[in-house]
């Protein structure tokens, strides 16, 4: 990521990125801890639990990325797949 | 009679003038026609404002209501922003086609009857195809043909449904209907095709990214949202729409996650966002329909903003793949800023328009105690942040340094984007100003501490998931197969196979025929061949010449035989 002579923009320096991670972790912790003081109204029960939004958000993203990854194994094709060249194999999927 | 000029006709006249005029005059039309249309939109009173007798029917080309005005307003506003964005770059015919296309969308907004709706519906199909073709590449031409086939097919299905309803009920009124018979199913399917619903969602991600950088801005706004409006007017509370909508929401996320093309990511996220609206129409309560309308309004703005920022990138760099882009924030700060605002809005981050409109749909689901729907919508909100909110700006403007140092947006493109930025934030910060224009009275407060906290947790931890899972999301130079594979490859190959089988059958029939005719010819010449002067071969049996006496003798024998036969 750090290319010593060209990448001199402050935003991409490893140091900045490290700080950004710290800030992110700090903000994440704050949003969860804030639930001690702020009551999240649960509309369906579980969504009012402590930290539910955090866990649910993370877990659903994990599930979606993994599912997409799995589906990608079957669905991904080379960019030229649909191009007119009909003589090439075309890739029947297994 | 026509007491009120249909606003669509003003824009259509603008489209024609764009074709006729040149230079500054054309620019003036590009910028003023949408504003004149917007003015006309707000002159339309509630109720039927114009009628025309047509055959045995009375058609109602202009009928006003708060819902119709809301959609027409954002359509007209979008034409202005799009015109400002495009007028220096786009060819005149692309602008003219885009304006006629938008005129179709605005026409549908005020259509009081099914016949008017259908006419404007086809106007959209026709001119949006031309906008796709204006991408002016072999890919755009091919995609345009596929797009046209899909929409003409959808139009026919819609027409079949409308004919059925008109014949069986005698009414051409555009009014809520139950999906109970063949006619209404056809109408629903025809409308859903335009909404990019399964199983034909693929047309959207196939066609839109092939258009020009300016064309995709227009395309993103009208077709699918007109379909949402039609669903609100025709099928509110049709519960099957809930599940169709949820499928679209998930489909959009998964396919966008797999995608490498920047604009195709955005195209998939249109399907995703329209899914929220379709789901809301299915829920069908006043709050849900308000949510669908509000979300459509907000969506048009931030999705156009996203397509605009992607368009500037493509215009300046000529590249559109995530694998070729990156690090552009250095020289394109304005475009990056606008793209990020659009991305935050689509994700529904508090203080943006996405938050104040999308949460209304979730709230409607919660109020109806649709637990699964509510939780799936929440998961989808997280997924939107993942696939559009972070993925798009991250891969285009940050990630690696691609080494590209393009100039930032030209002034008009920057201005168009900034106008949309103002609305993205404005609707997010002052939701109540916006809510008063929704079709039903709003009893909803988006900014409660608990709700904001819940969504912040949801979104920020999605962000964490994105950066932790980044290795799993490495971009590959691939496309993902979709249901259009069935007709682009499977049916094509089947036709080719059938074709070659028929060719083989034809070939063997041909061979057989040749053999038979050779045999017949050989036999015929054996029996019929006349005397050949060059050949001393004996002529065929029926071609020989015989003496006249022998013939007379045979006649005498036959006559005798006849006389004998006569006597017995």
UniProtKB/TrEMBL annotation, chain A:
This is Uncharacterized protein. Keywords: Membrane, Transmembrane, Transmembrane helix. The chain crosses the membrane at residues 19-38, 50-71.
UniProtKB/TrEMBL annotation, chain B:
It is a multi-pass membrane protein. Its main location: membrane. InterPro entries: ComplexI-like_HydComp (IPR052175), ND/Mrp_TM (IPR001750). Residues 111-376 form the NADH:quinone oxidoreductase/Mrp antiporter transmembrane domain. The keyword Electron transport does not apply. GO terms for cellular component: plasma membrane. GO terms for molecular function: oxidoreductase activity. Keywords: Cell membrane, Membrane, Oxidoreductase, Transmembrane, Transmembrane helix. It is found in: Cell membrane; Membrane. The chain crosses the membrane at residues 6-23, 30-55, 67-87, 99-121, 185-205, 217-234, 240-258, 265-284, 296-315, 327-351, 371-390, 411-434, 454-473, 485-505, 548-567. This is Na(+)/H(+) antiporter subunit D.
């Amino acid at each position: 990521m750090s290319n010593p002579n060209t990448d001199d923009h402050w935003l991409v320096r490893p140091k900045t990125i490290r700080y950004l991670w710290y800030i992110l972790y700090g903000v994440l912790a704050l949003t969860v801890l804030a639930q001690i003081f702020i009551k999240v109204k649960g509309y369906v029960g579980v969504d009012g639990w402590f930290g539910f939004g955090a866990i649910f958000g993370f877990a659903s993203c994990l599930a979606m990325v993994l599912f997409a990854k799995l589906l990608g194994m079957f669905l991904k094709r080379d960019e030229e797949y649909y191009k007119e060249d009909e003589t090439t194999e075309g890739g029947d999927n297994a | 009679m026509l007491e009120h000029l249909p606003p669509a006709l003003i824009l259509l006249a603008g489209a024609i003038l764009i074709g006729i005029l040149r230079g500054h005059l054309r620019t003036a039309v590009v910028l003023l026609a949408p504003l004149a249309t917007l003015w006309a939109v707000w002159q339309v009173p509630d109720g039927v404002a114009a009628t025309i007798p047509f055959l045995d029917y009375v058609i109602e080309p202009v009928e006003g209501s708060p819902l119709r005005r809301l959609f027409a307003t954002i359509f007209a506003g979008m034409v202005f922003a799009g015109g400002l964005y495009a007028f220096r770059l786009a060819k005149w015919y692309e602008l003219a086609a885009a304006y006629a296309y938008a005129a179709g969308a605005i026409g549908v907004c005020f259509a009081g009857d099914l016949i008017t709706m259908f006419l404007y519906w086809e106007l959209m199909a026709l001119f949006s195809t031309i906008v796709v073709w204006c991408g002016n590449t072999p890919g755009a031409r091919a995609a345009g043909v596929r797009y046209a086939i899909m929409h003409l097919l959808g139009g026919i299905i819609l027409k079949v449904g409308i004919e059925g309803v008109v014949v069986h009920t005698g009414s051409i009124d555009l009014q809520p209907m139950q999906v109970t018979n063949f006619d209404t199913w056809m109408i629903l399917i025809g409308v859903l095709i335009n909404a990019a619903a399964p199983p034909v969602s693929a047309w959207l991600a196939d066609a839109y990214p092939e258009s020009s950088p300016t064309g995709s801005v227009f395309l993103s706004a009208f077709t699918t949202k007109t379909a949402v409006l039609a669903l609100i007017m025709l099928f509110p509370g049709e519960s099957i729409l809930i599940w169709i909508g949820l499928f679209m929401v998930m489909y959009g996320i998964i396919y966008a996650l797999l995608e490498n093309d920047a604009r195709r990511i955005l195209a998939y996220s249109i399907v995703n966002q329209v899914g929220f609206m379709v789901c809301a129409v299915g829920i069908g309560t006043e709050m849900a329909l308000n949510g669908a309308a509000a979300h459509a309004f907000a969506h048009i703005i931030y999705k156009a903003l996203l397509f605009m920022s992607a368009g500037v990138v493509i215009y300046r760099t000529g590249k559109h793949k995530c694998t070729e882009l990156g690090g552009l924030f250095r020289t394109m700060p304005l475009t990056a800023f606008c793209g990020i605002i659009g991305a935050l809005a689509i994700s529904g981050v508090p203080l943006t328009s996405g938050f104040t409109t999308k949460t209304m749909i979730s709230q409607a689901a919660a109020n109806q105690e649709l637990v699964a729907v509510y939780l799936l919508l929440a998961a989808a909100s997280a997924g939107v942040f993942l696939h559009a909110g972070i993925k798009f700006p991250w891969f285009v403007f940050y990630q690696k340094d691609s080494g590209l140092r393009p100039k930032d947006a030209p002034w008009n493109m920057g201005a168009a984007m900034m106008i949309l930025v103002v609305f993205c934030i404005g609707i997010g910060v002052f939701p109540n100003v916006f809510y008063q224009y929704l079709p039903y009275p709003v009893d909803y407060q988006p900014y409660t501490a608990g709700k904001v906290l819940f969504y912040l947790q949801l979104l920020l931890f999605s962000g964490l998931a994105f950066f932790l899972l980044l290795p799993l999301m490495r971009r590959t130079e691939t496309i993902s197969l979709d249901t259009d594979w069935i007709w682009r490859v499977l049916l094509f190959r089947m036709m080719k196979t059938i074709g070659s089988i028929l060719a083989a059958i034809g070939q063997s029939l041909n061979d057989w025929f040749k053999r038979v005719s050779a045999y017949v010819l050989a036999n015929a010449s054996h029996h019929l061949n006349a005397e050949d002067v060059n050949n001393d071969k004996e002529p065929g049996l029926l071609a020989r010449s015989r003496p006249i006496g022998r013939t007379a003798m045979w006649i005498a024998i036959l006559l005798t035989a006849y006389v004998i036969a006569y006597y017995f």
